[in-house]
Structures are given as C-alpha cells and as structure tokens.
Amino acid sequence: MDGFAPTLFSSRAQLGRRTYFFDVKSAKNAKPFLKITQSEINGEEKKKNYLNVFDSEIPNFAQALNEAVDFISQSAK
C-alpha cells in the first residue's frame, strides 16, 4: 500500500524479540496515516505484520487503545 509513501515521523519500541515501528506516512491524497509494523525474529525466521490506521480513524483508534491500556493498568493494581 505505501511502497513509496514518504515517512513524516517514525519511532520504535524494542521489546525482546519483537520490535514495533510507528511510522506516520503520507498517502497519495497527501493525508497522513499511521503504519504500525511488528517485526519478530524467531531463530533465523523474520516475520512482519502491518496495520494501517488512516487519519479519519485515528480518534476512535486512540480512544479504544487508551481504554484497553487503562483497563490493563487498573487490573494490575
């Protein structure tokens, strides 16, 4: 989908064998979207999964993510 989409912002989180990349890219219509990539190394095997969240979906996505994080935080107490 974003083979040549320019990256506007990028961050990553290294968590053991998994690395998560959070890239804000520019779509063909010049609107930004979030591409989340999970990269996992298991021995010699590399596996990647992708998730694209488009600009119109960000508020609902962020709300649902925050609710899940809050639930986990409350459950851990």
Your description of this structure?
23% of the residues lie in helices and 51% in strands. It has a four-stranded antiparallel sheet, with no helix packed on it. It has one domain (7-75): Nuclear Transport Factor 2, Chain: A (Roll), CATH 3.10.450. With 77 residues, it is α+β, with helices and mostly antiparallel strands.
**So what's the CATH class?**
Alpha Beta
In CATH, the architecture is: Roll
Mean pLDDT: 93
State the total count of DSSP E strands: 4
N-end to C-end Cα span: 41 Å
Strand order of the largest sheet: 1-2-3-4
Helix proportion: 10-25%
Low-confidence residue ranges: none
SS summary, helix count:
1
Shape assignment: flat
Quickly give the structural class. alpha+beta
Descriptive terms for the model:
77 residues, alpha+beta, Nuclear Transport Factor 2, Chain: A, four-stranded antiparallel β-sheet, 1 helix
List the helices and strands and how they pair.
Elements: E1 7-15, E2 18-26, E3 32-42, E4 45-54, H1 58-75
Antiparallel strand pairs: 1-2, 2-3, 3-4
What can be said about this structure in brief?
The protein has 77 residues and is α+β, with helices and mostly antiparallel strands. It has one helix and four strands, in the order E-E-E-E-H. The chain has one domain: Nuclear Transport Factor 2, Chain: A (Roll), CATH 3.10.450.700.
